[in-house]
């Protein structure tokens, strides 16, 4: 299903784009199974319409939006972002959406809103992976308020000029390109503004391996593998050397969000 | 002519070995065919690494299953297949290690060793692989003679260490996915195979010492 969107040249990286086939068949989406091929196989059961997104917590205007009003809230843009997975591979994906800040402004957060929490759908009838105890369901992710307001943070409804495939987090997800992929919550049903730092799914599962911030950082290794380099899916094949991972995945404009923070401790 | 499974003549054993060899080579041939045809999916290195790791564990389990199976069935010829099965475990472990050395580190041995020291899950996997090398190297009849049966047997008991280390390596790898169902299954299988040995060695001896029930 086609989705009209104007490319926004301010947010287009020049790297070669990953093929749609790779981007839609090599996924981590544990609600549909832990194997990379599982989501594409199993996500057909996800019902993306009707869909509602609840905005709640520390806001002056809590609201519930259906998909159509969400899509019309701001003009849709196409942005080409690098995506770096914590597992050491990367892709380049043309997303469709608009800055999350547009939505946040509409909700008018109160002064107490320090963090934003994203809650993924958790419906056993639609998601076979929920039967497994690999993570605490529903999947929760979160950002600090200034991270969420950063123009790079994209409320995403499509990719490759079409609505999102189910396995990529349809009908609405977040994309935070300077953080490891798991920070970008999929199939969101709730956006909650909070005083306290959200208890995020991977951080709960293994705090020593997955920090709340999880900024892409070649200098801070995962306890079980190096993060200094990455394999670009579809490009860096069997015999190609891996490429160097860039600080903040190459999005240096976010560095000012973290001045004065020890990113080795707050990884 | 009625063939009985409890004994095989030399010709039958030879044929069985040829079949076993072909079957055990199939996973490797599959990888070759998949590589040539570009069927390895979006991340070929990951595919090969996982696949060769899986087959190493399968062959380690089968190797360890030979003795219990032989005791339970009385098929003594099973022991004649064990060397080949064990060597295939080494073969797939070597492919697994080569994938790591070649496609992950491009033969930068210094970098590779840094990884081995720094990351426990690699340390454990690497140790298991290194421990397999003397077993493969002493698998010939000549080596058995040179070492003498007793010493050879002691050396080859290293397999009791290698298999749990291999599973620990897999366990820590899967910890990232928080998905332990597979390592638990492997762990149970190997535990059962090792405990069977403990039982036969000590449990039965104790039973023999106690007076027979009358």
Overview of the structural elements:
The complex is a heterodimer of chains A (about 270) and B (about 210). The mean pLDDT of chain A is about 95. Chain A has six helices and 13 strands. The N and C termini of chain A lie far apart (about 40 Å). Chain A has one domain: Sulfite Oxidase, Chain A, domain 2. In chain A, strand 2 (about 50-55) and strand 3 (about 65) form a beta hairpin. With about 270 residues, chain A is of the alpha+beta class. In chain A, the strands form two sheets. In chain A, strands 1, 4, 5, 8, 9, 10, 12 and 13 form an eight-stranded mixed sheet that branches. A five-stranded mixed sheet of chain A has the order 3-2-11-6-7. In chain A, about 15% of the residues lie in helices and about 25% in strands. Chain B has about 210 residues and is mainly α. Chain B has a single domain, classed as Four Helix Bundle (Hemerythrin (Met), subunit A). Helix content of chain B is about 80%, strand content about 0%. Chain B contains nine helices and no strands. Chain B has helices spanning about 10-35, 45-75, 80-105, 110-120, 120-135, 140-145, 150-155, 160-175, 180-210. In chain B, helix 1 packs parallel to helix 3 (about 80-105), helix 2 (about 45-75) packs across helix 8 (about 160-175) and helix 4 crosses helix 5. Chain B starts with 9 loop residues before the first helix and ends in a 5-residue tail after the last helix. Chain B: Pfam families: Ferric_reduct. Chain B: Its cofactor is FMN; heme b. Chain B: It is found in: Cell membrane; Membrane. Chain B: Keywords: Cell membrane, Electron transport, Flavoprotein, FMN, Heme, Iron, Membrane, Metal-binding, Transmembrane, Transmembrane helix, Transport. Chain B: Belongs to the MsrQ family.
